[in-house]
Write a structure and sequence with these properties.
Length: 196
Amino acid sequence: MKAMSTEIAEVLQIVPACHQDARGYFAETYNRSALEPLGVTADFVQDNLSFSKREGTVRGLHFQAPPFQQAKLVRCSSGSILDVAVDIRFGSPTFGMHVARVLSAQNRHQLFVPAGFAHGFSTLTPNAEVLYKVDANYAPQSECGIRFDDPVLAIDWQLGNDPAYLSDRDKDLPQFTALPPVFTYADMIEVSECLS
């Protein structure tokens, strides 16, 4: 496996090694000992599966507030998505900036989204299946989010002129400017230093 840098240092694009022959291919999608030296030190406790029938579906932007914050390792096992991580750590030099990467069954790339980031994706194909690991269990009482189409964030979700297909919950998420200081950069840095 190798890690490719992104516009925000803590968000990593992971490229698994792929071994191909006449039968097809084999790839490790997760290997703790291979990922830790690359900066993925999360202790994953839960795997999630999301399936979206329609192209143009947007899920997000979501996060869990402390003490239930989650890091995620995201991959697309069928179809193609645009995966997005937004820095919501107040005081961060990249606060409000985002990383967007195409993840697909074909390229097999993954995105590591640390705690302190809002996460979402848009489906670029119908029948998109997304698998992601998280390092904290789902905690509905701490579930939060921000509007995917907030003009301050200026994320190009690659929807063209078509409207996004959203859940009712995601339609009602607050704007980015209404976000309280759920995460602070200084606190997140102290936590990461303790873990290393």
